[in-house]
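Hi all, posting the design record for the shared folder.

TITLE: backbone redesign
STEP: 1 of 1
STRUCTURE INPUT:
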């Protein structure tokens, strides 16, 4: 038997507990057009979470690029879906 004392929608919980959105990109696969589209997605998802790009060059290096406050976002389902549509797969992680 369980007793539920409080229920919070996942979207609210995600918003309250997320302070950073990390987007992982493969430098060999990403196009200039995708970068432009990414900019538009981030600008359309303004919020309080820092955004960080993790850019990988497979078998060579990885660079972490914290984006400025201009690109702070809200960790919404819409944001995550748009990133997946643009880059495929799960490219974003929340922390």
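Okay, here is what came back for every position:
SEQUENCE:
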């Amino acid at each position: 038997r369980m007793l539920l004392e409080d229920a919070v929608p996942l979207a609210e919980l995600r918003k309250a507990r997320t302070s950073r959105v990390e987007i992982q990109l493969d430098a060999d696969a990403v196009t200039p057009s995708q970068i432009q589209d990414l900019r538009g997605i981030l600008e359309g998802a303004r919020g309080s979470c820092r955004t960080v790009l993790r850019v990988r060059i497979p078998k060579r290096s990885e660079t972490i690029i914290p984006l400025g406050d201009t690109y702070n976002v809200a960790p919404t389902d819409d944001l995550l879906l748009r990133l997946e549509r643009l880059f495929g797969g799960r490219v974003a992680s929340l922390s």
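COMMENT: The helical segments are 10-17, 32-43, 77-87.
Let me know if anyone wants the other runs.
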